[in-house]
Amino acid sequence: MSVPGVIRVLLACVLCQQAWAEEDLWPAMQRTASAARELNYQGLFIYHNGAIIRSVQITHINEAGREFTRNVVLDGRPREVFSEGDDIVIFNAKNDKVVIEKRRGQNLFPAMLPTQLQPLKQNYKLKFIGQERIAGRLAQVIDMIPNDNLRYQYRVWSDSEYGLLLKMSMLDT
Question: The domain containing residue 75 runs over which residues?
Answer without folding.
Answer: 22-170
